[in-house]
Design brief:
Strand content: 5-15%
Shape: extended
Distance between the termini: 60 Å
Structural class: alpha+beta
Helix content: over 70%
Number of helices: 8
């Protein structure tokens, strides 16, 4: 216990000031770590872009080598069949050419695998760095809140607490949504691919019995029908994987991936038409931008179909010099923007993403007159 007589205001001010100095020093250290991570992140992004270009070149070269290898093998087979019609030098030349192309193709495949492994490693490291940057920024933001609270004589603490509560509620809802998504995926896999695989297993027993009792022709017919079931199961698995994260996003970019997404959504939702347009010359942008843009479009399209009951949806990307505009418009039932507040779960999620990209979002909607969502995202130059 300490005496209240010795604990005067001057001492309290001293403790308070030292606490502020410590917090400020810690904030500066975190900021330095964040900036160093950002520089490493940018350097690694450039390296990743170079590796991706190399992969594209190697794939093109590999395709050309594969064609040449096939032609050389065909030439060798032709020479071998009519051995007596060719000189020893021609036979040797055909063999050496085929062998040379085969070796080059093998080297090309090895190089492609090495580049893909390097790309995957860079992407993992980029994700780790991005997590570090986001955590550092989050901590700095928290420190700023504390400093503001301490240096303003506890003014505006109500607003700060309200924002913190909103963030907390949003975090809880994200966890709940993740669990719901896991349940949905579990149901989809159980009711779709898992059931189909169980059916395949039973059908194989049926084919064996059909072969023994009815002969090979009936068995072949059963096998042909079984192939359809396996093909459907494979299609369902690919759809589930695509919903989790489109692999084309990393290799092809945002525009081809969105085109594929639009096509897939239209295929699985009869009666819905999605009109996609990309104006001006699209460009490859950092992976976190492409993922965020894809998720924003996905969220808007899902909302338009699920809540807006839309039949026609328009998705437009407009590429400018230093930014990209994204417009998602639908002909659905719309909503009253005065009733649906900005703190609804879906809107909070989109605003969180757009804020991370330092962009802007606006929503226009009226009852029975559809909804238009506009995103403006500045691009790194």
């Amino acid at each position: 216990m300490f005496s209240t007589e010795t604990f005067d205001l001057k001492s309290l001010d001293g403790v308070f000031n030292r606490m502020l100095e410590t917090i400020m020093s810690s904030k500066d250290d975190i900021f330095i770590i964040s900036e160093q991570s950002r520089r490493s992140f940018e350097d690694m992004q450039k390296e990743l872009e170079i590796v991706r270009k190399h992969i594209s070149v190697v794939i093109d070269e590999g395709d050309a080598l594969e064609k040449n290898t096939q032609l050389a093998k065909q030439r060798l087979v032709l020479v071998s069949k009519a051995f007596n019609n060719y000189t020893e030098e021609q036979v040797r030349d055909a063999y050496e050419t085929a062998n040379d192309f085969q070796v080059k193709l093998s080297v090309s495949k090895t190089q492609e695998k090495q580049l893909r492994d390097k790309r995957d490693d860079l992407e993992r490291r980029l994700k780790s760095l991005l997590d570090t940057i986001e955590r550092a920024d989050h901590i700095v933001n928290q420190v700023n809140v504390v400093l503001k609270y301490l240096t303003s004589d506890l003014k505006h603490v109500g607003l700060a607490l309200e924002q913190a509560k909103l963030k907390q509620d949003f975090g809880i809802r994200i966890i709940t949504a993740q669990e719901e998504e896991r349940k949905r995926l579990s149901r989809e896999i159980h009711d779709g691919p898992a059931q189909m695989m169980a059916n395949v297993l039973m059908r194989t027993d049926l084919i064996e019995r059909t072969y023994r009792e009815k002969g090979i022709e009936q068995a072949i017919a059963e096998i042909a029908d079984l192939k359809k079931t396996v093909r459907n199961a494979l299609s369902e698995v690919r759809r589930i994987i695509y919903d989790l994260r489109p692999m084309a996003l990393d290799d092809l970019g945002i525009v081809p991936t969105l085109k594929k997404y639009v096509s897939t959504v239209t295929e699985y939702n009869p009666g819905v038409s999605i009109h996609f347009q990309s104006r001006s010359t699209e460009q490859r942008i950092p992976s976190n931008y492409e993922v965020s843009i894809f998720r924003l479009v996905q969220e808007c399209v899902t909302n338009a179909m699920k809540h807006g009951k839309s039949k026609d949806i328009w998705v437009k990307l407009e590429w400018l010099k230093n930014s990209v505009n994204i417009v998602i418009k639908d002909d659905g039932v719309g909503f009253d923007t005065q009733v649906v507040k900005d703190n609804s779960f879906g809107i909070i999620g989109m605003r969180e993403r757009i804020e991370l990209l330092h962009g802007n979002m606006s929503i226009q909607s009226e009852l029975n007159r559809g909804t238009t969502v506009l995103f403006k995202i500045p691009l790194e130059t």
